[in-house]
């Protein structure tokens, strides 16, 4: 039974950490292949309750995208405490030094997404197309995308 234990990677880092260093850690040290797509999920009110049918459609679409290409999914916590999701294999815990406040990870996340979007797709990053980042806004205002 011990052979079935999944060992996830995680790191706690400052929110002003260089995204190139973190991307190198993920791809070279942890040997996780570079993505062909990044899906960034952002949202507003943590109390938003998505309709079950819509949640199912969204989940199926994300699973299909993940199965068809190497995809990195990025999202944020929706409260002051958060349990790690066992569907993820890498956790970047960005710390801005505040206690009990949300949003400190946002600047790091956007800088990491921007860094990844400037990398090339293909084996060893030698392709000719930059990695696309798809931003999905769920239960928020359009100004969150700025």
From TrEMBL:
InterPro entries: TRPM (IPR050927), TRPM_SLOG (IPR041491). It comes from the Eukaryota. Residues 9-71, 81-145 form the TRPM SLOG domain. One of its GO terms (molecular function) is ligand-gated calcium channel activity. GO terms for cellular component: plasma membrane. This is TRPM SLOG domain-containing protein. The lineage of its organism: Eukaryota, Metazoa, Chordata, Craniata, Vertebrata. Pfam families: LSDAT_euk.
């Amino acid at each position: 039974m011990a052979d079935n234990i999944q060992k996830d990677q995680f790191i706690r880092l400052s929110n002003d950490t260089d995204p190139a260093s973190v991307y190198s850690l993920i791809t070279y040290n942890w040997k996780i292949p570079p993505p062909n797509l990044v899906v960034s999920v952002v949202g507003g009110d943590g109390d938003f309750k998505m309709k079950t049918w819509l949640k199912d459609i969204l989940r199926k679409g994300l699973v299909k995208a993940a199965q068809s290409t190497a995809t990195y999914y990025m999202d944020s916590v929706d409260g002051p405490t958060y349990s790690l999701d066992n569907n993820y294999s890498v956790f970047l815990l960005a710390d801005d030094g505040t206690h009990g406040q949300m949003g400190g990870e946002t600047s790091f996340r956007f800088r990491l997404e921007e860094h990844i979007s400037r990398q090339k797709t293909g084996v060893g990053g030698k392709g000719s197309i930059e990695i696309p980042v798809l931003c999905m806004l769920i239960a928020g205002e359009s100004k969150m995308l700025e």
